[in-house]
Design a protein that fits this description.
Layout (H helix, E strand, L loop, with lengths): L1 E6 L6 H11 L8 E6 L5 H7 L6 E4 L16 H6 L4 E4 L2 H6 L4 H13 L3 E6 L3 H5 L3 H13 L4 H6 L1 E4 L13 H19 L8 E5 L7 H5 L6 E4 L6 H8 L7
Parallel strand pairs: 1-2, 1-8, 2-3, 3-4, 4-5, 5-6, 6-7, 7-8
Helix pairs in contact: 5-7, 7-9
The protein binds 2-phosphoglycolic acid.
2-phosphoglycolic acid binds next to β8.
Length: 251
């Protein structure tokens, strides 16, 4: 299974998004390929209409951890379901750093998403300072243990983890395939060791951080990678298509 997730962040009007999909929604995908678009909240409903007969799936970029209530400015899983959303990005570093989301809140959101059958794309990753101090694995294991704390074994087997080194997001400096592979293997064995003692896990791990048409091939060649989470390069149809079709087949 290969996942190609477009994180549009705070970009695109409704007309721009519909135009993007007009061109994109009929691309041929094998059973193994998943293309998921994560637009701003205001576009979820119109895009869900436009994608009705398409294989492309929708993700939200965030979600609150309650069903409903007095939470001005927040979005609930019920409202996401109402827009045919199947995935939600949780714990993106921009949510952690700019909006001060902590591990406790992230863990509640992950639990709540599963309650509504929405698959979370759970982001983890170290800052440049943490990497330079040799704290990459400590940081990631802390984020994983705190985030996964409330989940059952079954839920953990369904989650999608996105390794997104903070220093690579939006900077044009991607992790090298070796750096990404080292962390992906670490995440895989951390989860196997701590949550699946008696059976083999196949947790899905995506890489995110300055993915482009020129580095996608090398990144997708590392061991234990199940796809990519793409920000900047997902905003143009042409570059995102090159990423999805990185193998070059015309299927
Ligand atoms: P980028 O963003 O591809 O622009 O680095 C990735 C992300 O933030 O998910």
């Amino acid at each position: 299974m290969k996942y190609f997730v477009a994180n549009w962040k705070m970009h695109k009007t409704c007309a721009e998004a519909l135009d993007f999909l007009e061109y994109f929604k009929n691309i041929s995908l094998s059973k193994e390929e998943y293309v998921i678009i994560a637009p701003p909240f205001t576009l979820l409903w119109p895009l869900s209409k436009s994608l009705q007969d398409s294989k492309i799936k929708l993700s939200a970029q965030n979600m609150y951890c309650e069903d409903k209530g007095a939470f001005t400015g927040e979005i609930s899983p019920i409202q996401l379901k109402d827009c045919n959303v199947d995935y939600v990005i949780i714990g993106h570093s921009e949510r952690r750093n700019i909006f001060h989301e902590d591990n406790e809140l992230i863990s509640k959101k992950l639990k709540k998403a599963f309650e509504y059958n929405i698959t979370p794309i759970f982001c983890v990753g170290e800052t440049l300072e943490q990497r330079q101090k040799g704290l990459t694995f400590d940081t990631i294991s802390n984020q994983l243990s705190a985030g996964l704390a409330k989940l059952s074994e079954d839920e953990i087997s369904k989650i999608i983890i996105a390794y997104e080194p903070v220093w690579a997001i939006g900077t044009g400096v991607n992790a090298t395939p070796e750096q990404a592979e080292e962390v992906h293997l670490f995440i895989n064995s951390f989860i196997q060791k701590n949550y699946f003692k008696n059976k083999n896990s196949d947790v899905k791990i995506l890489y995110g951080g300055s993915v482009t048409p020129s580095n996608i091939k090398d990144l997708m060649n590392i061991s234990k990678i199940d796809g990519v989470l793409v920000g900047g390069a997902s905003l143009q149809q042409e570059s995102f298509l090159k990423i999805v079709k990185y193998k070059g087949e015309d299927k």
